[in-house]
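PT: before anyone asks, these are the final sequences, not the draft ones from last week. 207 residues across everything. Please model them as a single complex and drop the result in this thread when it's through.
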Amino acid sequence: MAGPAARGDLGGARDGGLDNRWTGLADASGPVVTGLVGIGDAVTYTNPTMGQGVALALRAAQWVARQAGTAGDEPASFAADYHRWTEQALRPWFDIQVAMDRANEAQLRNPARASAQPPTAVAREKAALSACTWDDPVMMRARARIRHLVLPADQAYGTEEVRARLACWLADHPDFTPGFDGPAREEWESAVRRTETATVPGRAPSR
Ligand SMILES: Cc1cc2nc3c(=O)[nH]c(=O)nc-3n(C[C@H](O)[C@H](O)[C@H](O)COP(=O)(O)OP(=O)(O)OC[C@H]3O[C@@H](n4cnc5c(N)ncnc54)[C@H](O)[C@@H]3O)c2cc1C
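LR: through. Structure below.
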């Protein structure tokens, strides 16, 4: 058994103060370890903001349950197949979480600056994908398919119907611009620190 810390595909990201961790027990040279199968957070630890963790764990459990019969005969090829499957079936959802957290971090770090810049057409369309779901059930269904891991965003939003609905909504809302509310990160943290020191009874204010 090789040491998984020395090899393997270990991806971590801390975006917007949120952890996401990918633990692949194989790399370009093949499996790092056999006889050990990670599922759930052991492979795809995603922070809870998108509520993906349980679905990702169940999908992995399903794959392992279906293929477990062959694991004992060919442990190395079982481990390699599992790794390939996780890359293809789970990694895209992990990467979406990381991208979403990075975007949120950029926005929350300084919302005032983000609002001051005129939005590009692409940014406006992207923001409208979310805003229009409150008016259009077709768009809400597309979004729900993504949130519930039925389809990746490019497929759910890529249909002719969805693109036409989005164009219609943008035409009906010519003044729509992506809106950011709330304080900047530093402002929020200093406000929370003040409250914490003021409200914890019997504890000396922390510095
Ligand atoms: C605050 C919060 C909110 C979340 N909200 C959502 C949500 O809305 N939707 C969603 O899909 N996901 C959500 N998640 C993520 C979800 O909980 C996890 O992705 C999921 O529980 C992963 O399942 P798991 O079996 O891999 O790990 P876990 O559920 O963590 O199970 C691991 C188990 O192993 C046990 N254990 C650890 N070490 C040992 C040991 N040495 N010996 C024996 N037992 C051990 C632990 O006690 C634990 O019971 C949330 C997570 C958090 C923290």
